[in-house]
Records
---
Amino acid sequence: MRILITDTGMIWNKDNPFLEKYKDILTVVCLDGKKVTDKYECFVSPYKPVGLGMDNVGIESGRFKALASVAKKLMIGYHEDIVFLADNEPSTLYPYYALKDISEYNHLHLVAMPPLRFEVNAKTTAFKELVSDLSNLDSFLFYDINKKLDKFDKGKGLDDFLGFVTDDLGNMLPHILNGIHHINEPPCFFDFASMKYVSLEGGFDDIDITNSRQLATEPEFPLARSISTLGLIADPFYPDDSEYVKDRVERPVARFDGKKICNILRDQRLKLAAANNIPFESEECPSVGPCAGTCEKCDREADFLREALEKIPREKRVYPEFDAESEVGL
């Protein structure tokens, strides 16, 4: 396993005390073009400030372009779990975005959060751009920092809040990394209801909230980077092009609005059943996280209604109105 952070993080940075136990597997990606610490391994980007050193935010920025130009040098192994720890500073997503399309034989895991709502709009725009494609991830954890802010003591300042977030995520980190180590049915999302990584395909069926408060406190795996031998460069099974394309097209993808999509589709199924007098029950999913918006439970319910509708004469079937653009925002 490898952990990547940047020298620009507000939460995940070289001074975060919770990262010290992972020093053997942690790399600081130095976006500003100079080594920032001797405590951890550093990967120094060739970025050179121009003029006053001002830079844009996002994939058109000089910092990102400099990193992207040497991204392949950051990929030194195969069949590794690579964990990107990103925070409310969009530039912390640069390593993920630079590597996401060139890491076919590695397993990518992203821990991300949006900018704070009162930060400049350019950061929000850049964040959306940098997480626009999550299709190559094996796992995704979305920490909604703005919901945490809503519940935080209004009498305390921003430094106190960032300290709280640092402690909250730091205490969760061993649990997160252990969960990643034990993933066997990717892609997955981190569900805050069960505090587990849940298969996007399994969804509802994989959620168990009975032990949701039991967090791991220590890593359950060797803190070392995997070294691939020549025989492990590629999987032993080589699908043909058509199988690979089919797998990529049908692969579930984590969505920030997954819970919203799930609720809308479930509500539409309930309306469809009621309009056609079909006995039908649907348990609400307890998931709290960036799911795919649909899962095996959703598919079973849809199949049941499809079969029930086929027993009703076509002219007697009732289809409730559904405007995807207004309901889902498509």
---
Amino acid sequence: MNLWVYIQEGGAIMYVLLFLNIIGLGLMAFKLFTLYSCEKSIAVTAQTITDRINLNQGKERDPESKVQLAKQELNTYMAQAEKGINAIRLIAAISPLLGLLGTVVGVYMAFKLIAVTGMSNPSQFAEGLSLALITTVGGLIVAIPHYIGHTYLIGVLDRLEVHLERELTNRLL
């Protein structure tokens, strides 16, 4: 069997999982590209922030107040860089729940069929259980790479923040 047949057998929940997977993988690729671009331009970013602080506050300010302003600027910059990361975490969190929903629906369908027809046709019962297992697997297949990607991107963000803070400190002091 190919992948598309499994998705079709899983029903509506598998289509939702496929949609979430496509959105999440695209978002992860975009964030990776964006964050690596940010890492390569740390010196330029630090200089821009330093120039903005010096322009707004003047050179006569004491270094401590400039450091406080730099922290505020850094927080603003990092908040912008973090946009989209929570969506990846959300996909990682809800995918197994959607898989579980599919499991419950599949088992419900299987037992409802038994209630109506009895155990005269076990293949129909197996069809409901098949739906249950396929959606569980689908939810996990979507969740695992998104969880790994989210964790990796958080590490990249942390590294970016440390390098940028060090660069700003060196320029302001």
---
Amino acid sequence: MNPDLNQLQPYPFQKLAKLFGEVTPNVAYKPISLHIGEPKHATPQFIRDALVAGLDGLANYPTTIGSDALRSAIANWLARRYAIPAPDAKTQILPVNGSREALFAFAQAVIDRSRPHPTPDGTTIHSTKPASGQVAGYLPEGEGVSPAVVCPNPFYQIYEGAAFLAGAAPYFLNTLPEDNYALNFAQLPEAVWQRTQLIFVCSPGNPNGRVMPLAEWKTLFEMSDRYGFVIASDECYSEIYFGEDKPLGALQAAQQLGRGDYKNLVVFSSLSKRSNVPGLRSGFVAGDAKILEKFALYRTYHGCAMNPAIQAATIAAWNDEAHVAENRRLYAEKFEKTIAILTPVLPVSKPDASFYLWIRTPIADTAFAQQLYRDYNVSVLPGSFLGREARGVNPGANFIRLALVANLDETLEAARRITAFTSKLN
């Protein structure tokens, strides 16, 4: 077996199941789940209809790059959404089976294990795996010679797993409330940046919902030019926002900064949250044509072409915005009313975007989540399960993540139970 599998940690929901397994929930309350970001709003009927209408396509093998109509629909959506020139549908767009599998696969295609890296003493060596029992990403920063993959902390766990299975070492940028969850690139030393081949960023962020501003993109692009790393921008929450303040996207930032070729930049997006179709497993990557050409080659051997019926439903979804506006309206109502209920007992505020509330807890996050589940049968995710200790701190500790994905009544009932529970702690 691949020894890098031994470096993978249990997924956050596995950790949560173990934590909850230590107690018995209060069955006097109906269970309410706010721990997982799985959309619960109804899938629009027109998407269902398009899926059924596309079933004749099951008689044919799909191509890895998808149909011309699918890639054109995605390119045109990007142009409308971000007010940018439509990307080249043939070279700058690639459909994928959801952003999760694509984010993982991308690291496998991008990381070059043989690329030489400088060492602190000025010599140059080739990448090697960490010694037995060591995980390069958890060594003191600057040590190790594996390719480096940088990501925010807390983070979506796929980033870390993708790094390990690509033979690279993950390094973490702590995102802290006192810094407004900004990506402070100065946290990592020069020795790490010189080995960095890939950086994952997430905007709007999971779990904090923060949107990266243009100035931060400018710094990131300059660092990419300096060190030659690829930027993988995870934007699966881009369509869950409030009012008319649309989150800035990576391709949009690149255009505004005169980087229309999208050098070393690839964006990942998905219909799961936007259109309430997590089971459809439909998304895309877009950006640097040279990188996507190689990624398409990888995917051809990987065998991950999109189902033709799903392609038909996907085209319909990207071509409609009315259902997305209604989806945002539902979330906005839940945020407004939930925050009003929680504010008297918890320091809660609305994020820039996404459907998460990221809340500091008055006791340890694991104890808060476990006792809330035991006493009130509400499940939330401890923030420490989404982070790793870096530079002496796990920035997810003493936070919980609430996914406001249930219907309005359930969400507000959960908020009332959380308020009752927290009031007993104070």
---
Amino acid sequence: MKKVIALALSVVMALSLVACGGEPAAPAKFKVGMGAVVSPSLRDATADKAGQVQMNTTMAVVALDAEGKVVSVSFDVAQQALAVNTDGTTGDAAAVDTRTKIEKEGDYNMAGASSIGKELFEQVNAMEDWMVGKTVDEVLGMELGENSAAHANTPVGDLAASCTITVTDYLAAFKKAVDSAVEVEGLAKAGIGQNISVKGTAATADKKGSVQVDTNMVGVALDAEGKILWAKIDVAQNKAAFDATGVIDTNVDTRTKVEKEGDYGMVGVSGIGKEYFEQVKALGEWMVGKTVADVAAMETFDRGDGSHTAVPAVEDLKASVTITVGAYLDALVEAETNAK
């Protein structure tokens, strides 16, 4: 509720202030950004217990006012896992629950084990509310303690009554969002959406298997008319390899596709000679000024190669975007629904 009130007041002030001479004042300025932190959790298979590859992707979209105070913040965590067996096989990737922690709500089942009797989504919402109205330094300087041997870096002080989870990755994602933030005018609300998939490939005597989790993320900022002011697209595409006995390689690249920049290596196979980060940047810029419904209705085509099934057929994008965008469009729609 605090976030809604604070943001509503900001919008009202931006729309109602009148400059000298009776002319409307310029729209209020804000900064909006998105960040993500990936933390793998890996366990080798043994004769007694299956191994596991789990990717934990903590996402944040943050909006700041002209004074650098938080007016809106949205967190979520994609936590997907797949079993790895001693015979080099994996569990059924199609059976993995691809909901985020927030989307699971009560199904996440934290309340019973929580010392304050609150679900994870309730605790995250409380932390978001606590951040609104504070500066970046105040948020990142949150006082932390340890409420159990398993939970270090948990809030203390007034937030401890409503949030007892470890917040390390949340704060790191918050900082990344702030560090990447860009200026927009006339912000009404901002949010984040995602589309998640999991893939498992069995190992053989000659070749390692792998578990890959793709967390497609879209952050969006909208004006009072529902038009896009800013959109950022990224994918946490993280993979862990394992051998035919279920021993997992701990060397996992936790950078997102955008963070990899040229290391992603798309230029060599791109028909337009552009890297992935360049293409999603161009796509996000093209979205500005349009409604989410307009963007989601874009015409696409199937290149027929089995992997590029929803490539933009928009004339303005042909020279800058040749990647499949279906998952991004789904995430954009969800981001609008989640926006606050």
